[in-house]
């Protein structure tokens, strides 16, 4: 490492190393954060997120926070990387999936669960279902990265193929649900999914209380909704910035239009960030997310390279986009730049298909 690079591993005050824990209708929630936020009727709240933390703690890792003097120097900010790429299944998705699946009654769970996903949620549902001892039917588009497909199979999920469109994924999943009686575990538009993802903020703000800004990848909005609801309940003045690929910028367009915008097509290297906001996630993005930063694929690739070469962490494009956003001209020219000094960046996943790279070595 260069003299400008350090690598620090943060966990909660009581655990200074990474910890691994042992092994239908949905309840709604109303925001309740004391004097900090007024009730808004969002899909999750600080109470449901704390309940989720208790429910899922036997099944997930408390992920570490890393820092790098080199990346602090490059960005001119103090950066704290929440490494969900080290999470079980290689991504944050196990938080929401395990919360949703272990919240099911025995009768609900008996016929298994079904979902549709391009990869990380699919693997997470497969793993959580395996831990619960129930079947998992996973609808995957036929252009999904091979490494993510293999994760699903490794965790025992039954793969059902769809065409590479969101509508096809939804239609195939509905058919599977009707045939099997399995419970749908939506990738993001679900109260339990949102609450589970929100546990990231509980950890991060316990690990690094001085964080004033959190940068979160945005797609369907489950991650950013949970992170935002928890973080703003803990610290109402905290700033939440979404990071989105320019080739799949429906959230930025939705925010500007004041209503959900669905794009006719998406085109980005960040395959995990191509979903559109749902009716449960949109209100949180509309009301509480402070801004959305869009970046091109070139910037995402450069951020991945920095994560590999400087931070020494393997991340997928969707996971690296937060760093790309922090380094972008859009952020550095925004009003938020001056007041964002201690920035949390969620490295959301590390499941990248390295087959092409390994083949290049052979040549």
Helix content: 40-55%
Percent of residues in beta strands: 15-25%
**Low-pLDDT residue spans:** 1-8, 11-38
Q: How can the largest sheet be summarized?
A: 7 strands, mixed
Q: How many strand elements?
A: 13
CATH topology of the largest domain: Rossmann fold
Give me the secondary-structure category. alpha/beta
Rounded to the nearest angstrom, the radius of gyration is 19 Å
Key descriptive features of the protein:
363 residues, alpha/beta, Rossmann fold, 2 domains, 16 helices, 15% strand, disordered N terminus
What does this structure look like?
This protein has 363 residues and is an alpha/beta fold. The protein folds into two domains: 8-92 and 190-347, Rossmann fold (3-Layer(aba) Sandwich), CATH 3.40.50.1100; 93-184, Rossmann fold (3-Layer(aba) Sandwich). 43% of the residues lie in helices and 15% in strands. The protein has 16 helices and 13 strands. The strands form three sheets. Strands 1-4-5-13-10-11-12 form a seven-stranded mixed sheet, with helices on both faces. Strands 8-7-6-9 form a four-stranded parallel sheet, sandwiched between helices. Helix 6 links the parallel strand 7 (136-141) and strand 8. Helix 1 (46-56) crosses helix 3, helix 3 (93-102) packs parallel to helix 5 (120-132) and helix 12 crosses helix 13 (317-326). Mean pLDDT is 88; it is low at 1-8 and 11-38. Residues 1-27 have a biased composition (Low complexity). Its cofactor is pyridoxal 5'-phosphate; Mg(2+); Mn(2+); Ca(2+). This is Serine racemase. Keywords: Lyase, Magnesium, Pyridoxal phosphate. GO terms for molecular function: ATP binding; D-serine ammonia-lyase activity; L-serine ammonia-lyase activity; magnesium ion binding; pyridoxal phosphate binding; serine racemase activity; threonine racemase activity.
